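Table 4 source record.
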Amino acid sequence: MAELTIVRPSAFKQFRVLLGKELRQEFRTREMLTSMGIYALLVLVIFGAALSQAAQGFDILQVSGGLIWALIVFTSLLGLNRSFSSEKEEAALEGILLMPMDRSLIFLSKATSNLIFLLLVELISLPLFYFFFLTISSPAPSFWMASLPLLVGSIGIAGVGTLLATITSNARGKDVLLALLFIPIIYPLLHAVVAATTVVVVGGDNLVGTFATSLALAGGYDVVMLALSWFLYEFVISN
C-alpha cells in the first residue's frame, strides 16, 4: 500500500498566499485605502488653514519635510489601527494561527501589505501636497531625492507599526494606545527622515553629507527594528 506523503508548502509560497489574501481583501472592499486617502486630504486641508495666516516671507520649504512626515505618520496610524479589524471581526486570525507555519510569515505579509497601502496613499497625497504648498516656492533641483527617505521611512513605519498594531489589537482604547507606543518608538526614524527630506527640498552646500548621514541612520533603524520585530512576532501574536 502506497504511503501518503504530505508536502509542506515552502515559506515563500505561504507568504505569497497570506499576502494575496491581504491584498484581495482590501482591493475588494477598499475600506482601508479609502479611509487613509480621505484622512490624508483632511490633514492637507488643516495644513492649509494653519499656514494661511503665515507672515509674509515665510519659507514653506524649511518646514516642508516635517509637514510631509506628519501627514504620513498620522495617515499610517489610521491604516495600522484597521489592519487587524477583519481578522478580529471574522475570527480569521485564530484560523491562521492553527496552520502549521512560521508565525513570522504573518508579520512579513502584514507588514508588506501595510507598506503597499501606505505607498499607494503617498502616491496620491504627496503630489497634492506639492501642488498646494510647493508650487509657489520652488524646491531645489535635488527634490527628486526625497523618494529615498520616503521609501526607507515607510518601510520602518510599516514594520514597527505592524508589530505594535498586533500588540494593541486586543486592548481597550487600542487607537490611543497604538499612538502612544508608536510615535515615541519611531521618533529616531522620524527625526532622520525629516532631516533627509528637508535638506533635499531646501538644498544647500552640505546637502550630500547631511542627506547621506540621515539616510544611513534611517536605514540602520530599519534593519535593527525590523529584525527585532521579526524575532518577537511569534511571541507577540501567540499571547
